[in-house]
Write a structure and sequence with these properties.
By secondary structure, this protein is mainly beta. The protein has one helix and eight strands; from the N terminus they run H-E-E-E-E-E-E-E-E. The strands form two sheets. It has a six-stranded antiparallel beta barrel with strand order 1-4-5-8-7-6. A two-stranded antiparallel ribbon has the order 2-3.
Length: 138
């Protein structure tokens, strides 16, 4: 007998309160260009193709450490540019170098307008939500 998680999925998807947009470069590659004067990555001149728009959540991957590791100690701390996205299972398959942008956020207004590059897609998929790791690009 299979476990029916449709009720849990509906509850979890109700908690996804950011509005996200998923983009992919027309040729399937990320060709952002570095502005050497400002140090910012800017979208390439080629057209990006919008793949999906819908609810999601952008979060930090674990607690931020306020105490640095001691000398010689091994510690795994998330990078300051590391984020993760929680996407509903109805969202299309995400690829590395896809771009997620935040068009609305109830929890954090500073996320609105930010862009993230998908860095890892095999972080995890649960029966109720898909998890991907991202890096800030703008």
């Amino acid at each position: 007998m299979a476990l029916d998680l449709s009720g849990v999925r509906r509850v979890v998807e109700g908690l996804l309160d950011d509005e996200l947009q998923l983009w992919r470069e027309a040729d399937g590659e990320s060709n952002d260009e570095l502005d050497e004067e400002t140090g910012e990555l800017r979208p390439a001149t080629q057209a990006s193709v919008p793949l999906w728009e819908g609810p999601g959540a952008v979060t930090r991957p674990g607690p931020l450490s306020i105490t640095p590791p001691l000398d010689g100690a091994v510690a795994s701390l998330p990078a300051t540019t590391a984020y993760q996205a929680l996407l509903p299972l109805s969202a299309p398959q995400v690829m590395i170098d896809d771009v997620l942008s935040v068009s609305r956020s109830v929890r954090d207004e500073q996320l609105v307008g930010r862009r993230f590059r998908v860095a890892e897609v095999a972080v995890g998929t649960y029966a109720v939500v898909r998890v991907v790791r991202m890096e800030v690009i703008g």
